[in-house]
Design brief:
alpha+beta; 4-stranded mixed beta sheet; 17 helices; 12 strands; disordered N terminus; RhoGAP_chimaerin; metal-binding
Length: 440
């Protein structure tokens, strides 16, 4: 869409000066010295010529209901120009300082460990989740944020092919607690307009501009410059007041916000299923009533760990299995993540069973710790389901048919590619179930 006017800055700029807006038929360029003026003329192009610092700069204008520059959106061209005055002045007069302001941040000095720094691998499940944890760290509480990934469990891998499977078997003897990770999580930054003066919580410098002065983490509330957000460590500690729901929430965000190893949906549903549903025919294959499944979803979103999913509320176990499957389907990043997906599919295509097993094990090491732990717990549960297959008629293959598309989604939403991958998804999940004790 073409804009209905073009704007010309004249006579230089000072952020403290007023500016005039007059029809172009009245304004004679340079008529009044020292006062920036704006020309409003019929549109001839999507261009904003700007005379600034004795240099003419041309900026392309964009409009889609609001005027916008990058991620900034303005109600009027006047707001765009005013914000442009401030931005141009600051970036011109303080360019060297802006380039250096991330070098010596206060954020790192008060106890945060950067993602690339060395430090002892911490134990304990998940990150501290209560309100304002990162603010507590800013007051001096030191914290190690380096994640303990599944790859850290493979220190004793042997290089010879004959020893690979035996190394896998040795890892299967690790206790549950040794899989516990201090989950690393990147901040979920969104462009934000701050009301009143604000200072960056990474570099402690002023956040300039009229709107969209910086970014705010939607999960923990950290406020920083956009350029500072690129170097902030992956140490987000989600605050429950920012995490409003359980379903459709990023898995790592959820477990860190609630200070858990796994999402409570996974733990509570599996516990309920194993108490009263392992012998139920068609477990996970038979669907429960969609309205009741939606009720369970709303109960978790509303009540969290206090949600009542007992037999008194939902006597049909298929409602609980449906709610668990829905949780995995609704994850914004699948349990088997987009980054790891190609490696799993590639491994499933290997004809030799031992090579396939080793390939899937290598793919598991690509999963984020929270995803790895949740997958491990789910596969152990599904393995227990298969122990009752004579009664529930759910073999590892049947469960894999159900859970393949639920846990795995290709990065590219190509219908043909998705259809071609279905059999490999099934083979991945079937292998994970059958070899759960070895792979995890």
């Amino acid at each position: 869409m073409r804009v209905q006017h073009k704007v010309v800055f004249t006579n230089g700029f000072s952020p403290h000066q007023p500016h005039q807006i007059v029809p172009c038929s009245v304004l004679v360029r340079g008529q009044v010295k020292g006062v920036p003026r704006i020309l409003l003329c019929p549109a001839v192009a999507e261009v904003l010529p700007c005379l600034f610092g004795n240099q003419t700069r041309n900026f392309r204008l964009f409009y889609d209901g609001k005027h916008f520059v990058g991620e900034k959106r303005f109600e009027s061209i006047h707001d765009l120009v005013t914000d442009g005055f401030i931005t141009l002045y600051v970036e011109t007069k303080a360019a060297e300082y802006i380039a250096r302001m991330t070098i010596n941040p206060i954020y790192e000095h008060v106890g945060y460990t950067t993602a690339g720094s060395a430090g002892p691998a911490g134990g304990g499940g998940g990150g501290g989740g209560g309100s304002g944890n990162w603010r507590a760290a800013r007051s001096g509480a030191a914290r190690d944020v380096r994640a303990v990934t599944p790859s850290a469990l493979a220190d004793n891998d042997l290089s010879s092919p004959g020893d690979k499977l035996s190394a896998l078997v040795r890892r299967a003897t690790l206790k549950d607690g040794e899989h516990t990770a201090k989950y690393e999580k990147a901040h979920n930054f969104k462009v934000h307009t701050f009301r009143g003066p604000h200072w960056c919580e990474y570099c402690a410098n002023f956040m300039w501009g009229l709107i969209a002065q910086g970014v705010k983490c939607a999960d923990c509330g950290l406020n920083v410059h956009k350029q500072c957000s690129k170097v902030v460590p992956h140490d987000c500690e989600p605050d429950l007041k920012h995490v409003k729901k359980v379903y459709s929430c990023d898995l790592t965000t959820l477990v860190k916000a609630h200070n858990r190893k796994r999402p409570m949906v996974v733990d509570m549903c599996i516990k309920e299923i194993e108490m009263r549903g392992l012998r139920s025919e068609g477990l996970y294959r038979v669907s429960g009533f969609s309205e009741h499944i939606e009720d369970v979803k709303m109960a978790f979103d509303r009540d969290g760990e206090k949600a009542d999913i007992s037999a008194n509320s939902y006597d049909d176990i298929n409602i609980i299995t449906g709610a668990l499957k829905l949780y995995f389907r609704d994850l914004p990043i699948p349990l088997i993540t987009y980054d790891a997906y190609p490696k799993f599919i590639e491994a499933s295509k290997l004809m030799d069973a031992d090579e396939r097993l080793e390939g899937i094990h290598e793919a598991l090491r690509l999963l984020p710790p929270a995803h790895y732990e949740s997958l491990r717990y789910l596969m152990a549960h599904l393995k227990r389901v298969t122990l009752y297959s004579k009664e529930n008629l759910m073999s590892a293959e049947n469960l894999a048919i159900v859970f393949g598309p639920t846990l795995m989604r290709p990065p590219e939403q190509d219908v043909l590619a998705t259809l071609n991958d279905i059999r490999y998804q099934r083979l991945v999940i079937e292998t994970l179930i059958n070899n759960e004790e070895i792979l995890f």
